[in-house]
Design goal:
Layout lengths: L2 H26 L3 H7 L1 H16 L4 H10 L13 H10 L1
Helix pairs in contact: 1-3, 1-4, 2-3
Amino acid sequence: MSILDRIAGSIDRISDSTDLVSGMAERLGVELDAVVLNDPERGALRFRSLALRCSGCSKQGDCAELQRACAHLDEAPDYCRNKAFLDFAAKAA
């Protein structure tokens, strides 16, 4: 596998992670747009951190399946690397 293939794979994984983070937030009733728009610089850094944390997770397939099966969740799953933030934000919403 070439270095370009590896880079493309990493970009794809981060892209998938942004979708998973957004989807999980939506199911928890967290408006990530509001987090970003409230303070664009910090919000963008927060979202980047959430996506990067998610990209290192070995349970992305489980997360995608959970999101396909559930339109609403009361809390993030225990395996979620962003559980603390998402659950806190959901309670604040």
